From TrEMBL:
UniProt protein name: TLDc domain-containing protein
InterPro entries xrefs: TLDc_dom
Every TLDc domain range: 17-152
Length: 156
């Protein structure tokens, strides 16, 4: 948001380079799956700029506003706040959380390699565990998906 309270958008559909140096960022992913509108994403406390590789980002989290299982909105914090894989910063990719628990490739709306499969680094809601079918499909309807829209916003 700028000083007037408006959000500032730095990415539409995957070019996160425009977000480099911006902190914090909020990634919003929208998916239409089986007549459902699903909305989820991640919040990163560390910049996407830097050397290619993983980074600690205490306070980062994944979230869901609308999900495949119709659960109420939830926040999925890091299981370990000092996790070295909280975010991944690779210049050829879009926002990546947890080493791929939420992976947004560049040009995501035309790239079927987008993934949402969490539970190892980010805590899923009660009753969901890593590597289980219900957890793999919770955020986006399936672990591999094609988003209809991706935005990354930052606070100024």
């Amino acid at each position: 948001m700028d000083s007037t309270g408006r959000k500032l958008e730095c990415v539409l559909a995957g070019n996160k380079r425009r977000c480099d140096g911006k902190v914090p960022t909020l990634t919003i992913v929208k998916v239409f799956k089986n007549a459902k509108k699903i909305i989820f994403g991640g919040f990163a406390t560390k910049t996407w700029a830097g050397n290619d590789g993983e980074a600690r980002a205490p306070g980062s989290f994944l979230y869901s506003l609308r999900n495949n299982d119709d659960l109420t909105a939830f926040k999925a914090p890091l299981i370990n706040e000092n996790d070295e894989w909280a975010i991944s910063r690779y210049s050829v990719d879009g926002p990546t959380f947890g080493g791929g628990e939420l992976f947004i490739p560049n040009n995501a709306v035309s790239n079927p390699n987008t993934q949402a499969d969490f539970g190892t680094r980010y805590q899923p809601p009660h009753g969901y565990t890593a590597n289980q079918p219900n957890t793999k499909s919770l955020l986006a309807g399936s672990s591999d998906f094609l988003p209809s829209e991706v935005e990354v916003l930052y606070l100024n």
